Structures are given as structure tokens and as C-alpha cells.
Amino acid sequence: MSKRAILVVDLQNEYWPRGNFSLVGIEAAAANAARVIRHGRENGDLVVNIRHEMPGGPIFVPGSDGAQINEAVLPQADEPVITKNFANSFRETGLDALLTQQGVEEVVVVGAMSHMCVDATTRAANDLGYRTVTVHDACATRDLEFNGVTTPAAQVHAAFMAGLAFLYGEVVGTDELLAR
After folding, report:
1. CATH number for the domain including 26?
2. Which of 47, 104, 115, 151 could form a disulfide with 5 if both were Cys (CB 3.0 to 4.6 A apart)?
3. Catalytic residue at 117?
């Protein structure tokens, strides 16, 4: 097994158009994530699927269709699935222990949302000492509104990827990652 893990963050039905919180470009991001996952499997990388649940919340309700991992990126039977209740996939989960036990040194992050769970997970991974690679075109987000100003999803995504690239690791496209 390699010393790399693919962290598939929150690619759940809730984010698809039929869900309750659809993201801009989620299908294209998931298609790229599927390519990254397939490449990781072929190279012996650990693939870890992470799913968000919000007990009592309006979305990601435990047991609902929206909380299920989307069929585009379904885990294989032997792949771990980590359930989390916070944006940071390491917070109050066994993710760090799993990665440590498997000898992982580098994490490749794909998923949703760029400005929340992808960002929080990548930063936490870096803080824990993992080398991080975020695959920007295998992540998606949505328009955000603050103080009467709406920021389009493409700008939200670009700003967060720029922040990660500035200090928290590499940010690359799918084709670049697969060509390595």
C-alpha cells in the first residue's frame, strides 16, 4: 500500500440537483473525483469516504437519501467510511488514527463544499503534519451571500483554493494529478 490516501469529502446526494442543497458544478466535480479515486485504487492508495450527518438538522439527516454517498463515487466494500458531524473531517472521528495506522503521509482531498468541509479538512490535515494536495476541479461549492452581497460560486471556489495553495499545500487539477 502507498503512503497516500484519497479523502472523498461529503460527495453526498444532498448536494446534487435532486437534493436539498445543490452545488454549482457538482456533477463535473464528482466525475473528476471518480477519476482521482479510480487512479488511487489502481496505485494502491487508501480511499477514505467521508460523509456528513447533521442529527436534527435540515440537511444530511441521518438515514435520509440526502445523507447517502452519491452513486458517482460509491465506496468499494473494503474502503472505510467515516461519518462526521463537523466541517473538519478529523474532528471527533477516527480519521487521523486510521491514517496513522495505515502509514499515510500525504492526503489528496476531493469533494464538497470547497469553502467549508474541503477547506476545513485540508487545513486540519496540514496542521496534523500530512502533506496535502487538493484537486480543485474535483471540488464544488455554491454562491454565497454576506451582508447583501452575493459572491458567485466560481469566485468563492477560487478564493478558497488560492488560500489553500498559499500556505496549506498543493492545489492541482485532475489531469495534473493523474499525470504524475
Report:
1. 3.40.50.850
2. 104
3. yes
